[in-house]
Amino acid sequence: MQQDEAHSDEDVPYYEDVSPGSGALPPVAWLPGSDARRLSLNGTWRFRLSPTATTEDEGFARPEYDDSAWAGLAVPGHWVLQGHGAPAYTNTGYPFPVDPPRMPDENPTGDHRYAFELPADWPAGATVLRFGGVESCARVWLNGTELGHFKGSRLPHEFEVGALLRPGPNVLAVRVHQWSSGSYLEDQDQWWLPGVFREVELRQRPEGAVRDVFVHAGYDHRTGDGTLRVDCAPAGRVTVPELGLDLATGESATVPVAPWTAETPRLYDAELATPGERVRLRIGFRTVAVEDGLLKVNGRRLLLRGVNRHEFHPAHGRALTADVMRRDLLLMKQHNINAVRTSHYPPHPAFLELCDELGLWVVDECDLETHGFAQQGWRDNPVDDERWTPALLDRARRMVERDKNHPSVIMWSLGNECGTGRGLSAMAAWMRERDPSRPLHYEGDPSCADTDVYSRMYADHAEVERIGRRTEEPLRDAALDARRRSLPFVLCEYAHAMGNGPGGLSDYQRLFETYERCQGGFVWEWIDHGLRQETADGIPYHAYGGDFGEELHDGNFVCDGLVFPERTPSPGLVEYKKVIEPVRIEAVGPDTAPGAVRVTNLQDFADLSALVFPWRYEVEGRPVAEGTLAVPPLLPGESAELKLPPPADSPPVGEALWTVRAVLAEDTAWAAAGHEVAWGQLPAGPRPVPRPLTSAVAPRRGEGGTIALGPGVFDAATGVLSGFDGRAVTGPRLDVWRAPTDNDEGAPWQPGQRCGPEWRRIGLHRMRHRTDAVVAAGDALIVRTRVAPAATALGFRVVHRWTSDGAALRVEVAVTPEGDWPAPLPRLGLRMGVDGDLSAVRWFGGGPGEAYPDTSAAARVGRWALSVDELQTPYVRPQENGARIGVRWAELRRPDGTGLRIEGEPDFFLTARRWTTEELDAARHTPDLVPGDRVWLHLDHAQHGIGSQSCGPGVLSRYRLDAAPATFAFTFRPAE
Ligand code: GAL
């Protein structure tokens, strides 16, 4: 046979044809609480992997087939995470040739078999076999009879199997192809993870059971009434005992209700009874509308404090347990997050149940992305090719039908990054017709022709401000422009949380609070998709793109979340929590001694009655007095100014601060009483100016080419401090280098200068030091140096002026840049090495977590104590981290209590680690960081901001560290 005959274009195999599949039942609502029987088919299945799609015939589907040589495989699960093949990560590039709908012969195919017993009392009649999600194409047999095939990985598919089931042993066989035509529609930025990754189950369907149900539960904020209508096939009755409702399906009833909102997720338990089934419903009454140019729920504008959430677990990929879903939601609620975009596919339906219960606004996104076509100018884009429209509509239907009964879902999203096309319009038209109660979202079409909100990703602050004023760049089409200008605005992605960052969150939040059109957004993204691995020596770490031998990959771009892979909060999440806090607590009155506090309720629906407001008065970080502030139960948007009790110790000895916190008065479903929701700090008096040390001793020549000054010993040739208080030290010397963060490195497609590459070009990672003078001038030792990279005339003149009162040593540093610096500096300060056993750190200043100039909202002034190891932030790809901001003084101690104290004039950024910046910069994964025998201290006068240029705007000008003359001082003392 000739090649041409074997593969004519018309004759593509089922997994490559553009159809959504064959044989499956029409999509219906997800109904978890039913009295009809269910049988879970999750468990250990038998599994065999083939490298191509066509290696063997379908004989394996016969019940009697001998699979004893096959491996065991956990279902739900991905075979590539269970020792068969490997995961692969690409962002936008398809990991196969772009030749839709075809796939290469290399198409890993997993044959699955599961033998199960049907309980003897399983009723005869209809039974549905349900797959919650299979990536990417499955062909299914039960007891040797083929049922059909399907595509649409993160969507459910059901088959009628009643006639095929038999009492006792049954065998389900599923052939899963990693690649299919569906893969062209699933080019989301994530790991490619084939397999049966959501549950498989049998659902008995009694005669007269619910085929489908659509709950319509609106709320009229003017009357306080809810209107309920439950459409069901077949007809039945609905009862809502709490509301005294008992009505026929299809009939409406209007009664006073408490509405559902994300802040007050009030659900009413209901029961739907049809002749064959009783189903539990949980009803939330709310009305979503776009009116007056705003997205409103129950008549009020929303402010979305959101995140983009992918389904991810570091060991199980997208196979999540209910516990993991709940953990995500509890963490979100505890961090003031009120919205989720289910990027970029419908999540497990149990997740939406939890959103209903705990209260989150959800943008439910369809399983659709064709981003890889952008590389060819969107030529052949499936969303603009009507042959693919049935597949697109199938995806739209499977999402809307499954999820239509969740009050938490307030918008449907057509998909992500598909460009534009007729297929998208067809999806939008179908969704509007089927569910007119929810607005539509899609970011990829700037004209917004099919959507009800104007959505963008990564727009910079200046552009968001223009959009807020409705003065954005016009579209060419005047009618479309006028329409778009009238729409509410959301950032469906912003603040790229890759590595250290994102910076600039507060600045976005200010815009959202200033311009009513700007209704907030969704940080990209919730979790780092780092896969759990171990080194040969058993050290755990997380892997990213390229770690599995992928030919094509996008490295650690897959690690850009607010939580680390194991779901521990990163500093970015702590910052976000502070920035989006639903209550603002701020000083009123003069900056230095306000004496009063303004409390503002920034929620959209709830008053403040769930919160209490403890205050504390501290001097030098030590508590002096505390109490509770009586804050009235302010309504949304209201403020009150409240007096704080006058300090008992005026004038205080040291720096005095009020801290007022808003904490939960009682336990909630998502946090215990006492959980902190918001806080504010205000000075209780002017900040004391540090007393400069009075010099009392003069430098003198010591032994062996040294100079002694008080507790310090200097190298007479270089003027570098080599000993302090009888211990060897290295440095301190001027340092401007930091191990570039992902945001420093920037993305090639982002506008603006990319600092990381520019810093390396200039040579900031290989500075040379020259000593120009080491001279005694009265009581002072003056050391002049020039610090500069090779191959350029750029550099810094540095004058160090060392003095001592006999017990302590003070250095005043004056830095003057030379040359025309083409880029901001990473940092400006001193680096010094001290004994490795100085491992316990205490400081007075910003903390407890990491903070940089544009990530500092969450740093509060106090006395903090952490070990050097605890100061590190374990970014999946090591990079600059761990600075503490606004440090007035710090002490590093040995286990025996001796140590070093450092005081700053002015306050400084403190960083301490067991490896050098060069080692940090060279590390690719966390186990590459091996502690040395020194602690490296960075005492920085300034740091450059962080920004979010890894996929967004760079550092705002007010957080830039430009090369400019600077002076600062540090005093070193033996710790007492
Ligand atoms: C967006 C995309 C996301 C993710 C992000 C960068 O363009 O929608 O899926 O790739 O950029 O991390």
UniProtKB/TrEMBL annotation:
Domain of life: Bacteria
Record keywords: Glycosidase, Hydrolase
PROSITE patterns named in the record: GLYCOSYL_HYDROL_F2_1 (PS00719), GLYCOSYL_HYDROL_F2_2 (PS00608)
Matching InterPro entries: B-gal_small/dom_5, Bact_Beta-galactosidase, Beta-gal/glucu_dom_sf, Gal_mutarotase_sf_dom, Galactose-bd-like_sf, GH, GH-type_carb-bd, Glyco_hydro_2
Top EC class, one word: hydrolase
Annotated stretches, region: Disordered: 1-20
Domain Beta galactosidase small chain/: 706-973
Gene3D superfamilies reported in the protein's UniProt record: 2.70.98.10, Galactose-binding domain-like (2.60.120.260), Glycosidases (3.20.20.80), Immunoglobulins (2.60.40.10)
Catalytic reaction list: Hydrolysis of terminal non-reducing beta-D-galactose residues in beta-D-galactosides
Gene Ontology molecular function: hydrolase activity
Known EC number: 3.2.1.23
Annotated Basic and acidic residues bias: 1-10
Entry similarity comment: Belongs to the glycosyl hydrolase 2 family.
UniProt name for this protein: Beta-galactosidase
